[in-house]
Amino acid sequence: MRCKRGGNENSDSLSQTNPPKLVLRYRDDNSDTWSADREISLGFQGDREIIIEEHIRGHFRTRQYEVYTTDNVSVALSEMVQYFDNTLDEGR
């Protein structure tokens, strides 16, 4: 996942010790149950380009993601890539 933070946040409203976080959760196969939240640091003010690697495994036909931030910061999600591994079928 690649995202960029805006640079126009009010520095008085943001903590300089606890950076804002991107919260990610997902659900598989249109289930009513969502995964536990994964909190990912967006860095401190001035950190513009953030590249995040999250290794989320599981078996699914479809996966839906929900993404939001913990603070009022501008974030652009510019790319999200899902890689698949079909090695489980090798022995069949």
Mind explaining what this structure looks like?
By secondary structure, the chain is mainly β. It has one domain. The chain is elongated and about 40 Å long. The mean pLDDT is 77.
What's the layout of helices and strands?
Blueprint: E1 2-5, E2 21-28, E3 38-41, E4 49-51, E5 63-69, E6 75-79
Antiparallel strand pairs: 1-4, 1-6, 2-3, 2-5
Q: Features of this protein?
A:
mainly beta, three-stranded antiparallel β-sheet, elongated, single chain, 34% strand, 92 residues, 6 strands
- Structural class by sheet pairing and helices: mainly beta
| Count of beta strands | 6
Strand order of the largest sheet: 4-1-6
Task: Return the average pLDDT rounded to an integer.
Answer: 77
N- to C-terminal distance: 33 Å
Shape, per Cα inertia axes: elongated
Give helix and strand order, one letter per element, not per position.
EEEEEE
Number of helices: 0
Total of domains: 1
Strand content bin: 25-35%
The whole-angstrom Rg is: 16 Å
Brief overview:
Helices cover 0% and strands 34% of the residues.
